[in-house]
Amino acid sequence: MTDTVLADVTVRPASAEDRPTVERLWLMFRHDLSAFRCVLPAPDGTFRDERVESAFTRPGWAPYLFECGTHPAGFAFVRGLDGPVRVLNSFFVVRGVRRRRVGLRTVRAVLTRHPGPWEVAFQRDNPAAVAFWHRVASDLAGDAWTCELRPVPERPELPPDVWLSFRVEADVPPLS
Question: How high is the pLDDT of residue 91?
């Protein structure tokens, strides 16, 4: 696949050579989430990273890297590409480029690469995520999206996640 350039942001599939960069971005992502999940890093300063491994090695998964020029700006992990519903498993934009429509541009670029039904999960106690994902669903699907709470698998002590479901069409125009 060729790179998709949206203004000053590039969205492209992450390669094996990109994995160390994505792993460092993963630490920032998990650090951000720790505010909503009360999770501390392991004694070595890392967080659980089985999703990184899955994104780079499992069938039906795809990792994406976002860049601003030569600088990493975020990532996305997609799963379910071999099934009926795609899931945006993880999505992260570095703080230095937030509030500049980078999130909207990059998520749109990732989701429109794989038209069809999508699901996205996030924490309801993260007000920025709630507003962002509702905006994404409305932008891509109009009023044709649903929202439900689902328990976090194997983590009964955590509050349920919010799951949005919507369909992305192949002919969605890019953001200007």
Answer: 93
